[in-house]
Design a protein that fits this description.
There is one protein chain. The chain folds into two domains: 67 residues, no CATH class; 43 residues, no CATH class. Helices cover 80% and strands 0% of the residues. The chain contains six helices and no strands. The protein is elongated and about 45 Å long. The model has no long low-confidence stretch (mean pLDDT 77). Keywords: Membrane, Transmembrane, Transmembrane helix.
């Protein structure tokens, strides 16, 4: 199941952001460690140990979400705001002071 999820996740990201956008997002200075850890976890799941690979991928996602506020997180917030059902709900949530602070730190412009 984990191999299938990884097999579908990577092309899904490429289809969502495009090849150039995916490469730019993964190659930025703040996301390199997270990208390398994710690819290493992907290879570990495929060839060695799914348990160790899973935890390495969890660490990689943590690095991607907390390491570079200029790229990955702002793109993720923008994508969530564009969703039909979740977007309007998220627009009301971003008025909370803590969320405003995090979005400002991420460089996301609120409407």
């Amino acid at each position: 199941m984990m191999q299938t999820g990884n097999l579908l996740f990577v092309p899904g990201v490429v289809l969502t952001f495009g090849v150039r956008g995916t490469l730019e997002m993964c190659a930025t200075e703040g996301n390199r460690r997270g990208t390398a850890a994710y690819v290493a976890g992907l290879l570990l799941i495929r060839y060695v140990s799914s348990f160790v690979g899973f935890w390495l991928q969890c660490y990689a996602i943590f690095l991607l979400l907390t390491g570079n506020y200029d790229g990955f997180l702002s793109t993720l917030v923008w994508m969530v705001k564009m969703l039909p059902v979740v977007g309007p709900i998220f627009d009301t949530v971003d008025d909370i002071p803590w969320v405003k602070k995090q979005l400002a730190r991420a460089g996301v412009k609120s409407d």
